[in-house]
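testing teh design pipeline on a random one, pls ignore if ur not involved
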C-alpha cells in the first residue's frame, strides 16, 4: 500500500495553489485600479460600470460551454493556454496605458477577453484538485483554497490603490507579471490531462485509431443538469445557496447607507466593509475544523441562520463602527460552507462531468446574484439602511426555516443518490 503524502508535501497541489494565488492577487490588484483609471480618463462612473459589467457578462455567457469543453479537451493544455492568454490581455492593456492610447472600447474588449479566460480557468482548477489530491485530504485542500481567496480579497484592493498612486500603469504591470508567474506554476504542476480512469482512444481491428464519439454541447450540458436534479439533497442545498447569494448580495448597499446615516465617512465605511475580509480570512483558516462539526445539510442551515441573525444585528443603534462586528461573524461561518460544498461536489460528481457540473453550479449560484444590489437598493431607498438590513436578516431566517422543512436537506450527508444512473457510461464511469 502506497503511503499518502501530506498535503503540504504534495508538490503538484502546492504549485497549483501558488499559481492560483498569485493569479487571484493580480486580479484583485486591478479590481480597484481599473475603475479608478476609467474614471480618471472619462470622468464617467457609468462607463466604469460598463467595463466591469462586460467582464461579468462574458464570463456568464461562456461559463456553460467552457465547462463542457473542459470535460472534452486536454485539461492541462486548457489551463496553461487560458492563463497565458490572460497574461497577454493584461500586457496589451498595460502597453496601451503606458503609451497613452487607451480608449473605452479597448477597455471593454479586453475586459470581455479576460472574462472568457476566467470562465475556463475556474473549471480546470476544480477538476485538477480532484485529480491530484487524495479524497481524505480534500477538506484541507479546499480550506487552503478558501484562505487564498479571502487573503487576496483583503490585500489586493488596498495594494492596488497604493500601486496606482505610484503610477497609473504600475498595478497593471504587476498584474501581468502575476499572470505570467501563474502560467509557469501551472505548467510545473502538471495537472491531469483527463480523468484518471478515462482510457486512451481505442483502436479498431484494422489498427486505425477510433475517435471518441462527440455528442452535442446542449446534450452534455443537459446531462449535467439532469444529474444534479436526481441528487436529492444536493439540489435542495443548491436552491438554498441561490437564495443566500441573493439576499447576501443585497446587503451591501443598505450597509453603506446605514454607516452614512450614522455619520460615517468613506474611511469608516471602508473599514466597516473590511469586516467581510477579516472574518473571511479567519473563517477560511478555521473552516476545516468547523466543517467537520455538522453534516453538509445541517451546516447550511446553521450558516444561513447565523448570516441572517448577524445581518439584522448590524442595525443595532451602537454607532457607525458597530456593523464591523457582526460582519466578521458572517464571514467566519460562510467559508466552512464553501469548503464543505467544494468537497461534496468533488466526491459526488463523476470526474468526467466535473467541468460541466462546476459550470452548472457556478451559474446557479450566480443566477440571482445580479438582482441582489437592485433589491438592496430598493429596500434601502424605501425603508432606510437599518430597516432594510432587518428585513434582509428576517428573510434569511425565513429561508433557513423553510429549508429545515426539507428532510432531504436536513439529512444530506454528501453521498450520491443510490438511484442515480447516468445516461452516458463515459460520464458516469468515475467513482464518486
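output:
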Amino acid at each position: 500500500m502506497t503511503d499518502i503524502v501530506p498535503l503540504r508535501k504534495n508538490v503538484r497541489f502546492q504549485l497549483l495553489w501558488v499559481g492560483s494565488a498569485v493569479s487571484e492577487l493580480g486580479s484583485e490588484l486591478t479590481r480597484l485600479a481599473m475603475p479608478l483609471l476609467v474614471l480618471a480618463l472619462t470622468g464617467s462612473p457609468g462607463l466604469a460600470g460598463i467595463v466591469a459589467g462586460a467582464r461579468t457578462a462574458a464570463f456568464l455567457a461562456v461559463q456553460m460551454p467552457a465547462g463542457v469543453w473542459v470535460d472534452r479537451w486536454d485539461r492541462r493544455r486548457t489551463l496553461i493556454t487560458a492563463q497565458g492568454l490572460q497574461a497577454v490581455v493584461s500586457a496589451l492593456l498595460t502597453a496601451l496605458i503606458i503609451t497613452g492610447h487607451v480608449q473605452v472600447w479597448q477597455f471593454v474588449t479586453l475586459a470581455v477577453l479576460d472574462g472568457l479566460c476566467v470562465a475556463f480557468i475556474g473549471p480546470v482548477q476544480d477538476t485538477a484538485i480532484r485529480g491530484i489530491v487524495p479524497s481524505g485530504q480534500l477538506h484541507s485542500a479546499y480550506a487552503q483554497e478558501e484562505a487564498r481567496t479571502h487573503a487576496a480579497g483583503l490585500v489586493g484592493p488596498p495594494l492596488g490603490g497604493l500601486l496606482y498612486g505610484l503610477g497609473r500603469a504600475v498595478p497593471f504591470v504587476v498584474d501581468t507579471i502575476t499572470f505570467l508567474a501563474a502560467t509557469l506554476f501551472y505548467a510545473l504542476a502538471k495537472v491531469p490531462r483527463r480523468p484518471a480512469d478515462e482510457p486512451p482512444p481505442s483502436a479498431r481491428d484494422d489498427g486505425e485509431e477510433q475517435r471518441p464519439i462527440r455528442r452535442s454541447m446542449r446534450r452534455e450540458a443537459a446531462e449535467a443538469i439532469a444529474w444534479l436534479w436526481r441528487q436529492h439533497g444536493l439540489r435542495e442545498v443548491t436552491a438554498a445557496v441561490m437564495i443566500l447569494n441573493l439576499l447576501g448580495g443585497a446587503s451591501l448597499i443598505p450597509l453603506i447607507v446605514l454607516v452614512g446615516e450614522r455619520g460615517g465617512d468613506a474611511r469608516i465605511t471602508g473599514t466597516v466593509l473590511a469586516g467581510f475580509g477579516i472574518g473571511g480570512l479567519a473563517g477560511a483558516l478555521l473552516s476545516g475544523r468547523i466543517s467537520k462539526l455538522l453534516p453538509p445539510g445541517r451546516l447550511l442551515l446553521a450558516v444561513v441562520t447565523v448570516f441572517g441573525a448577524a445581518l439584522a444585528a448590524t442595525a443595532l443603534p451602537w454607532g457607525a463602527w458597530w456593523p464591523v462586528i457582526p460582519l466578521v461573524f458572517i464571514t467566519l461561518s460562510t467559508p466552512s460552507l464553501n469548503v464543505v460544498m467544494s468537497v461534496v461536489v468533488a466526491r459526488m460528481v463523476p470526474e468526467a462531468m466535473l467541468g460541466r457540473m462546476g459550470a452548472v453550479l457556478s451559474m446557479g449560484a450566480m443566477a440571482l446574484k445580479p438582482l441582489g444590489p437592485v433589491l438592496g437598493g430598493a429596500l434601502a431607498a424605501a425603508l432606510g439602511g437599518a430597516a432594510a438590513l432587518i428585513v434582509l436578516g428576517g428573510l434569511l431566517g425565513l429561508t433557513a426555516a423553510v429549508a429545515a422543512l426539507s428532510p432531504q436537506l436536513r439529512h444530506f450527508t454528501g453521498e450520491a443518490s443510490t438511484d442515480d444512473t447516468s445516461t452516458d457510461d463515459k460520464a458516469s464511469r468515475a467513482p464518486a
